[in-house]
Amino acid sequence: MIYDAAIIGAGIVGSCIARELSRYKLNICILEKENDVSCGVSKANSGIIHAGYDPEPNTLMALLNVKGAEMYPELSKSLHFDFKQIGSFVISFNEADRVHLENLLERGKTNGVKELRIIEKEELKKIEPNISDEANAALFAPSAGIISPYQATWAFAENAVQNGVKLYLNNQVRAIERNTENGEELFELKTSKGSLKTRFVINAAGLYADKINELVGAKTFFTKARRGEYCLLDSNCKNLAKHVLFQLPSKLGKGVLITPTVDNNILIGPSADSVSTVDETATTKAGQKFVFNTACRTIPNLPARNIINSFAGARALAFVKSETEEFVPVNDFIIEEDSIIKKFITVGGIASPGLSAAPAIAVYVVDLLKNAGLELIPNQDFVSVRKGIESFLRASAERKVELIEENSLYGRIICRCEMITEAEIVQSIHSIIGATDLDGVKRRTRSGMGRCQGGFCLPRVTEILSRELKIPMIEVTKKGGYSYVLYGKTRSNDEVPYD
Q1: Using CA atoms, how far apart are residues 174 and 189, in angstroms rounded to an integer?
Q2: Active-site residue (options: 50, 80, 100, 243)
Q3: Class for domain 397-475, per CATH?
């Protein structure tokens, strides 16, 4: 088979592009080097849908941020992923800061952000009573929201596959060649598992997008990672903040924030640490201390004893070399058909607000493909709705009874912290893009994300994966590869303990 287009990377951007292309009568595939979708930048970020006041006007960031944010409410309903439009505040702590709020307000209006306004201390304290007494004003953006980034990525990818897109996991692109076949110029993508041919290529490889460009001789740019560390507070702290609370942004990013999550935790972070390699996502004592102490300026006396997890993610920043061989930041998304390698679309440097912009990036890329010669005939059989997994925790008492009557596995609680049932775990394994390891189940159901962090449910989830995938328990992994959870039995079945 010759594909019409191949997408490299199954993060939020690649998955959105795949879903958008599935609206048309095309043969599309996604190549992902990991064993699941959303295993790169998309799995570890703030989960915020930014309103769009921060990007420089007249940039792709500004244009696509605002458009993407406007698309999420409807998409979340159609694709069954969590989205809450809770609004955000950028907080001023003194009169000097207030000038920056005014600048952000004007920038936001230029970018087309709706209903932006500055509120004063008295109103701010009424809305967010736990906020510091130092706060004297804030920029209020009602259109900002929050999602679970890995849940959303999974939803977009599943709907794409539902509409005929082929997903190839564990397929790292190692070489790209251009060949002519029957008078038609094609790309041959050679991966860790074989090769395939395609007419168009969309490079949405995130932190590795520069390397993919290099393989084919497309535009040269360099991806540098900026590590962001986070702390996650238990759900019993959910009343600390009702909105996304930003401090003023800096050259390094939007600063340390405090935000509710769609799952009723409180998230604090990120830091902004330059790292030497793109896969440096270990947390550090210094980074955790910085994040926590900085956040305490927004809400004093945060309960450190309620930190249940810490993690770090990486942001993909694009740089080019100047005439003096210095690395200069691009400060915008790189989304374009290559000027030399025709029919090759680069989607690189997708740092914040990439999550917010992703659905709009997909529409923009489809327009680029059309202009590059891809024929787009609407797919009359396109299914815009994707059914997710019904949450037992969020169901009403009456619905809980119905669910158990429909499926007895809803009556078995596996993860006590998050009230996740065996029915939800089994569904996550047998869905269109099913979980094949513990982290996959975790991202789809939240089992293991509560206060005990899997201390009680991990053995049971391991058993369920073994049973449903029909593999020995010792072959169950945490995140694919060689990340095995078990080594072997502690004793044979016929051995008598304490004999």
Answers
A1: 8
A2: 50
A3: mainly alpha
